[in-house]
Amino acid sequence: MTEDEDRADAWFHALADRTRRDILRRVLAGEHSVSALAARYDMSFAAVQKHVAVLERAGLITKRRQGREALASGDVAAVRSVGAMLSDLESLWRGRISRIDELITTDTEPTEKPEPKER
Hints:
mainly alpha; Arc Repressor Mutant, subunit A; about 10% strand
């Protein structure tokens, strides 16, 4: 398995959870402290920290320390890479579906007119 495939696995694992997607949306809009993020969810601070850690390991967010606070920011370049990967997959499958449609159309169109039946 390549490094790119490992990174894609990490991205999609991180994005498979709705809380993590919501955290990512918030930190893409601007830097947030992890404690401020935790106040928005009906879960423990430790649970939010774990979600943030998954996003950070996937490379979708970065964290920095300011005093006692951990501040999280979204990594726009990483999110664009996820979008580009999905666009590539969409193009690949649209091409395949288009070829299948062409084959179906070709197979169903008669090449010659059928001869009339004898009575």
